[in-house]
Specification:
The chain is of the alpha+beta class. Helix content is 41%, strand content 16%. A hairpin with a 2-residue loop joins strand 32 (865-873) and strand 33. The protein starts with 7 loop residues before the first helix and ends with a strand.
């Protein structure tokens, strides 16, 4: 049966339909490619775009040609060697009809099927461009593996390419075999009729040779499998790498199987030309039996009867190799361990004399205060801050202080009413304004040592109206603070939509810049030109927005900004980097820039521990980008990137010039990464040790602090990452239902450090128990950046010598009688209690725990306010409105002096008129001497109202609660009026 012939008109219609379908399939991809090409031109990284695209195109055609060409060759051989006469079983033989149809369209099938197969294979394989480039530009590590003596660069750059190529050869041979099998059957080379069927000589030769090639590739695979043993997970999760069984059973088995496979391949080739199918059949049986007996049974027997009974001794060599490789691969070779008692007895005099750690105790939790920043310094509704703020340090007037910092960004999601039209959303509200900083150890509470109102950060915005940042120093409100030359923020974490800036004078609407200026026109270098109609058409199609095409406000000078998130911009410029999940803003040389950490990673470092990046970096923090859960066994923070918040320029700096992986990528993309010598001192001063790397190293140190292989095997001295008792939920959840505690940036002096250091810290607990086992810190200071120090507590503790960990300290806090009593006042129907970060600090031979307690009224416009501070040292607990008072309760009266040095309150942080009354949960103290009777009466009224409220809550009397709340509100206003009429010099309190 032959297919009906198509008319000329039908063929034309089919061609047109095919072109339309192809345009629909490829149009979106071509459009995205063009838009990306424009974007890479904007950031000056078109070299990256061109290299990636060219590599992917070459791979597409190479793999497509390999797979499609192999199939085409196989089909051509089957067709050319088909039998001349093929018996037909009858007039209705279906195979005969299919054969006639194929022969009638032999070019269509002979070219079309391999072409489609090649296209599919090419589209599948072109994404492996990074593997190819690393193979072409791989460098030496200068280190060899302990088993074969190969340079580690062979495993990092060469072996993955060989395995990739071998995989595609397997695919090509397999598809060719299947194609030959079907074609030979269709053309009669294989006939199933009759006893045992019949196999034509040409079919036997083609199929046997193809199968022989497959077996020969299997021999090559066994050769490379020997090297893969160095990544063995046979004893995972205890350790990775070649085990005793791998080295003494599996490795010899691979060599034996390699030889058997080579012999079997020869048997297949011989059987093809000797017209004897018995040889290939015997070879196939031999290959399967040897694979089972030599490759599976023998290693299993050795493992069960020799290794397991003596595993601690047998695996000692492999464990020692794993320990050395893991420390080298994850940068843990130079960890400084120091024994620390953990049970010191610091006195009030010790605390008072401390000039480094105690005065810098951090009270502001950047993970809690985003709503507070938004309400108090956000000003307009369309400004906002990320869910998680950041920590950094600045030196002002010669004094280094850590600050909670944030960029006040545009947040178009908060636009309301007429603000949401297209012009306002994309052409008016285009940028944020200002860099906000608040001293991390200071709040605006106005009365030292007493319950009082306040409890908010002293946050100062360096913006177009206050470019000098004056007011950040409460002791000198008029002195310059963090000065910003260009405070406008066009690129940030909240700017996930496009903006169109510039435009024709008189037609384009002015950009909103501040309450006093709404006609600003962007004059920076950021954005892609929209001055020509082709680009306008492209972006109109990209965003499905016809206004881009027809708006008169867009013309010469108009530019469109997109891909505005700093993390996304770095990922696109350097697609070979793994980007840290928490970019942070910094003022560097007068400009606001985003600093983004980039990692080079591998998953084929011999003997090193395989770590799931996503699981290791997840904790209780919200508002940070989560890493994909990829397996890695090598990581370096080789690159620091900056993204200019005004013009979006991306700059990559090398910070680990010795990293072989970075060296390879620098050869792939020469000039993209700037040398470390280009880093300015001001920029380097704001580098932080990255959080994701810290979490990975912290996770590994729970095991790899052990130095003896046999002790490692027992796991008795392993540690745990502590769980965060202040938060519930999260992904990396322990048995108690709590997520892992994050690391905390603090400004402190740890034992052995010379002076105050900005560092990232975390406690570590003993294995499966909550007692403290160690304390880890990594310096972020330029002078010793990346130095890891671990304070190691005694391993044999008994009785009261064990030190409580975070979960136990939190339990102690909540069982404290003062806290229990006050919490009854906090936890009423109108207030939510928020526990801040529980920070662990080594002080006086012991550990000082500090936790701020915030409250937030339950209404739409409320925000967190610091109400109390919890402190623990040894078995003592302090609970007070200020850190100074809490320290006094623990150590004695003299202790509070180190944390309560008086300063002058900044007028820039006065509560706004819409601020909810805070005295409902932090009442002023009564009974003290005062020269203002109205103030004393208001204090008494507040306490009376609180007492009534407490009683009403216990009785469940909602009417009485309402009356008490009304009385409390009236008393609060009376207190504020009385205080306003009294000239007070009471300062805000550093530390509370």
């Amino acid at each position: 049966m032959s297919l009906p012939k198509l008319s000329r008109r039908s063929r034309v219609l089919l061609i047109v339909a095919a072109v339309i379908v192809l345009a629909l399939l490829l149009g979106a991809r071509l459009l995205d490619t063009y838009v990306d090409w424009l974007w890479f031109g904007e950031v000056g990284a078109r070299q990256v775009f061109n290299t990636v695209v060219v590599t992917r195109i070459v791979l597409f055609f190479a793999i497509g040609l390999l797979v499609g060409g192999s199939l085409a060759l196989s089909l051509w051989i089957a067709y050319r060697t088909r039998p001349v006469f093929v018996p037909v079983s009858g007039a209705d033989d279906p195979l005969s009809r299919y054969r006639s149809a194929v022969v009638g369209r032999i070019r269509l099938f002979g070219i079309g099927i391999p072409l489609v197969t090649g296209l599919i294979a090419g589209a599948t394989g072109e994404g492996d461009w990074q593997r190819i480039q690393l193979f072409l530009h791989g460098t030496s590590f200068g280190q060899t593996d302990p088993e074969f003596g190969n340079d580690l660069g062979f495993y990092a750059f060469t072996l993955p390419f060989y395995q990739w190529l071998l995989g595609w050869l397997f695919v090509a041979v397999t598809i060719s075999f299947v194609g030959a099998l079907i074609a030979q059957y269709l053309f009669g080379g294989i006939r199933l009729a009759g006893r045992g069927g019949q196999l034509a000589g040409s079919a036997r030769v083609q199929l046997a040779v193809t199968a022989g090639l497959f077996v020969l590739l299997k021999a090559v695979e066994y050769f490379f499998d020997r090297y893969n043993l160095l990544f063995s997970d046979r004893n995972a999760p205890l350790f990775y790498g070649a085990t005793y069984t791998d080295l003494n059973a599996v490795l010899p088995a691979k060599l034996i199987l390699l030889c058997i496979s080579a012999i079997c391949a020869v048997a297949f080739f011989a059987g093809a030309f000797l017209r004897n199918i018995q040889l290939p059949a015997i070879a196939l049986v031999l290959l399967i039996l040897s694979g089972v007996l030599v490759g599976v049974a023998w290693p299993a027997i050795l493992e069960q009867f020799s290794v397991k009974p003596n595993a601690n001794q047998k695996e000692a060599l492999s464990i020692s190799r794993n320990m050395a490789a893991t420390k080298a691969a994850f940068g843990l070779n130079n960890v400084q361990y120091e024994d620390y008692p953990g049970t010191g007895q610091a006195t009030a005099a010790d605390i008072s004399a401390d000039t480094t750690t105690v005065p810098n105790i951090r009270l502001l939790d950047p993970n809690v205060l985003s709503p507070t920043f938004t309400q108090r310094v956000g000003r307009e509704n369309f400004y906002g801050f990320p869910a998680k703020l950041d920590m950094d340090r600045y030196s002002i007037d010669g004094k280094t202080q850590d600050y909670v910092v944030a960029a006040r960004e545009i947040n178009t999601a908060n636009l309301t009413g007429n603000q949401t039209n297209w012009i306002n959303k994309h052409m008016v509200y285009t940028h944020g304004n200002g860099f906000v900083a608040a001293p991390a150890n200071t709040i605006d509470r106005a009365v030292s040592g007493a319950n009082s109102d306040g409890g908010y950060p002293i946050a100062v915005t360096s913006d177009t109206q206050n470019p000098t940042g004056a007011g950040i120093d409460p002791a000198n409100p008029t002195a310059p603070g963090i000065a910003v030359q260009q405070p406008r923020i066009y690129y940030g974490e909240l700017t996930n939509d496009y903006a169109i800036v510039g435009g024709q004078q008189g037609k384009a609407p002015g950009e909103y810049d501040s309450a006093s200026s709404s006609n600003y026109r962007y004059d920076g270098s950021g954005g892609v030109n929209l001055g020509n109609w082709f680009n306008r058409l492209a972006f109109a199609a990209k965003y499905g927005e016809r206004n881009i095409l027809f708006s008169d406000a867009i013309g010469d000078g108009s530019k469109i900004m997109y891909n505005r998130d700093p993390r996304d911009r770095v990922s696109k410029v350097a697609p070979w980097l793994t980007v840290d999940g928490d970019p942070y803003p910094a003022v560097v040389d007068g400009k606001i820039v985003w600093i983004v950490d980039g990692y080079t990673t591998l998953n084929n470092y011999p003997y090193s521990e395989q770590t799931q990046l996503g699981a290791a970096t997840q904790d209780s923090l919200a508002g940070v980008a989560r890493q994909a859960n990829n397996n890695i066994n090598y990581i370096r923070n080789s690159v620091k990137a900056t993204v200019d918040a005004f013009n979006g320029s991306v700059t990559l700096y090398s910070v680990d010039d010795k990293d072989p992986v970075l060296k390879a990528w620098e050869q792939v993309f020469p000039g993209v990464v700037q040398p470390s010598s280009d880093i300015t001192p001001d920029l380097r001063a704001h580098f932080r040790y990255p959080e994701d790397l810290f979490k990975v190293q912290r996770e590994l140190l729970t095991k790899y602090h052990v130095t003896d292989p046999q002790e490692f095997y027992t796991t008795n001295t392993f540690w745990n990452v502590p769980q965060d008792p202040t938060q519930e939920g999260g992904t990396n959840v322990g048995a108690s239902g709590l997520a892992n505690q994050p690391g905390y940036y603090v400004l402190a002096q740890a034992p052995g450090q010379n002076g105050t250091t900005f560092q990232l810290t975390s406690p570590l607990t003993a294995l499966q128990v909550q007692y403290l086992a160690a304390w880890m810190t990594v310096s972020s200071d330029p002078k010793d950046y990346g130095a890891i120090k671990v304070l190691r507590l005694p391993t044999t503790a008994s009785g009261n010598s064990q030190v409580d960990g975070p979960v136990q300290v939190q339990n102690r806090f909540q069982s404290d009688s003062r806290f229990a009593e006050q919490r009854t006042l906090f936890s009423n129907q109108s207030v939510t209690v928020i526990f801040g970060n529980l920070i662990t600090l080594p002080v006086g031979g012991g550990f000082l725990y500090v936790e701020p307690v915030y409250i937030q009224q339950r209404n739409q416009n409320s925000y967190p306010q610091l109400a109390r501070v919890l402190v623990s040292y040894g078995s003592k607990v302090g609970f007070a409105p200020t850190i100074g008072e809490a320290l006094k309760q623990v150590f004695g009266d003299q202790a509070g002096q180190a944390a309560t040095a008086p300063t002058q309150q900044s007028p820039t942080t006065a509560p706004s008129p819409s601020t909810p009354p805070s005295t409902s949960t932090t009442p002023p103290a009564a009974g003290g001497a005062s020269s203002n009777p109205a103030l004393d009466q208001a204090v008494a009224d507040i306490q009376s109202a609180l007492t009534r409220l407490h009683q009403a809550q216990q009785n469940g009397d909602f009417a009485a609660q309402g009356q008490a709340l009304a009385a409390l509100d009236a008393a609060t206003r009376a207190y504020e009026n009385a205080k306003a009429g009294q000239t007070s010099s009471a300062p805000p309190q550093p530390g509370g």
